[in-house]
Amino acid sequence: MTAAVLPRRRLRPGRIAASAVAVLVALAWVFPVHWMVNSSLLPNTVLTSTTPRFLPVGGSFDNFIAVINQGTFWPALGMSTAITLTTVVFCLLFAFLAALAISRFRFRGRASFVLTVLFIQMLPAEGLFIAQYKLMSSLNLLNSVIGVSILYIAAVVPFTIWMLRGFVAGVPIELEEAAMVDGLSRTQAFFRITLPLLAPGLVASGVYAFLQAWNEFTIALVILQKEEYRTLPLWLRGFVQASATRATDWGQVMAASTLVAVPVIVFFLIVQGRLTSGLVAGAVKG
Amino acid sequence: MTAMSAPTAPQAHPDSPGQPEPQSSRRRRGAAVPYALLVPAVAILVLALGYPMLWQTWTSFLQFGLAQQFGKPPTFVGLTNYTRLFSDPQTWAVVGRSIAFCLVNAAITVVLGVLIALLMNAVGTVTRLVLQVAMLLAWAMPVIASMTVWIWVFDWRRGIVNWGLTQLGLDFTNHNWLEQPLSFYFVATVIVVWMSVPFVAFSVYAALTQISDEVMEAAALDGATPRQRFFAIIMPMIRPVLMIVTLLQVIWDLRVFAQIKMLQDAGAPTASTDLLGTYIYRLGVGSSDFGMASALSIFVLILTVALSFFYVVHLMKEDS
């Protein structure tokens, strides 16, 4: 892993300086995350005092309790969960079928399909959300789980196809064929041999879809305009909007942020090894 | 969708050689199978992206404003929306600001990312781990949660930044960072760079680990200075990664809707701080001028597709 250092383990001044800078950079990058958790544990009286408290000494979970009992948290969590689950399930299903098609078959239009998928995954929500809003309003799907989920699936499916294609192509077809020679039907061979080998790919793609749907803001903002139908990111935005006009209980806002962020961070850290190694494989080959 | 979405799929073994045989037999047996497998994905893409794109293209040639919202049939006006749009100085201000913001942010992100990757490469295992964990935490944070924290950090009443600067002897008591466009963009840049650097740092670090120790040792023995080693060996070796990462950064920094919208919601004036995304939002959702909003959206799409072209070509090359 480490490269390019000659006689190692000799503490040269340059190395010590580099380590010092590295620690400072790490502190700078982790500070906002620390500040979020720290503020979420402190009462408003401490946060409004003139000297900030950098560690949550004498902190409590009161802010979390207040936020959860506020009544708006559970509906938002419900919306986010429903939309995210719908997106993950359908996205995986659709992307998996498409990935099978493009990595197991040669057919006319394959190359142009792959090309289209790659371009589509680059399209910004900002360039389409007005039209998508009109579409959902004409289908009477504004402020609905289905409306947002349709848009999310379409937004996430292209990259998921591309990601799964790599995993499917990584399972050699000879394996399946060997199983068939040994007497399994094509369907059996697929379910007994190929699918288990694809499990890591499906998990990685599923987590990717989860993170995208859970964190999405732009489309949700346009489609879910009624307060009862807010997802968690829109619910968080509500606190920031309120802070523009009146004094805010930042402890509660940070508790709300922490509630939204923690599941994401946990998931991200679990899969990050796979995500970055995928990224590395893709990028380094160059 | 967000800057987090970086990873490229694990590279497949190139699936071309050695395969034509089973495929040709398969093609005869079930020519319709691959198409059937594509149906669900294509259907949802056509519904959620294809149709809106067509509608948007068509609407960009229509007079489609508030009156049309209430039932008046839209009239075809040709390129009027486009000429109106691009003769409006406000549009050029927004486009100019967006491009400037995007280039400045991408440049700072890539430079910092490379420096941090070099740092990861230069320090010992424990320090590197500390740095990587910090980077990962920042990378993992949901955009909206990050925005609320940063807005609190820069809060004009009790934000930690104002407190810190005041402690240093500068009077920043009750200084509102979001009021003036320049300091608004400064805050936005800090946030966007903070959230984008980890991706660049990890990608470049991965490329750095591929450079063999022998090459670097040989260069050092031959008397190359660190500077020479960087420009003559490291840079050429990480160039492919660097180009892709820079391109992605530029594309992603054009679409900073969530970040700008949240900062505006926290109390910034919108007209002087709008970038492309928030401006389209205001035209479409705010003033229901769907003709103009569509025209500007088409412009954004064309810009993105043009920029994405090289990235897609690169991915296709890897695929075959």
From TrEMBL, chain A:
Indicate where this protein resides in the cell: Cell membrane
Instruction: Quote the cellular component terms of the Gene Ontology held in the record.
Output: plasma membrane
Sorted alphabetically, the keyword list is: Cell membrane, Membrane, Transmembrane, Transmembrane helix, Transport
Regarding protein family, the annotation reads:
Belongs to the binding-protein-dependent transport system permease family.
Q: What is this protein's name?
A: ABC transporter, permease protein
Q: How does it sit in the membrane?
A: Multi-pass membrane protein
Q: Which domain of life is it from?
A: Bacteria
The ABC transmembrane type-1 domain, residue ranges = 77-271
Q: Which Gene3D superfamilies match?
A: MetI-like (1.10.3720.10)
Listed InterPro entries: BP-dep_ABC_trans_perm, MetI-like, MetI-like_sf
Q: Which species does this protein come from?
A: Micropruina glycogenica
Residues passing through the membrane, by range: 16-37, 82-101, 113-133, 145-168, 189-211, 250-271
Automatic annotation (TrEMBL), chain B:
Q: Which InterPro entries match?
A: MetI-like, MetI-like_sf, UgpAE/MalFG_permease
Transmembrane stretches, by residue range? 32-54, 98-122, 129-153, 184-208, 229-252, 290-313
The source's domain of life comes to Bacteria
Q: Does the keyword Cell membrane apply?
A: yes
Please tell me one Gene Ontology term that the record gives under cellular component. plasma membrane
What's the protein called, per UniProt?
Answer: Sugar ABC transporter permease
Q: Which species is this record about?
A: Micropruina glycogenica
- Which keywords appear in this protein's UniProt record, sorted alphabetically? Cell membrane, Membrane, Transmembrane, Transmembrane helix, Transport
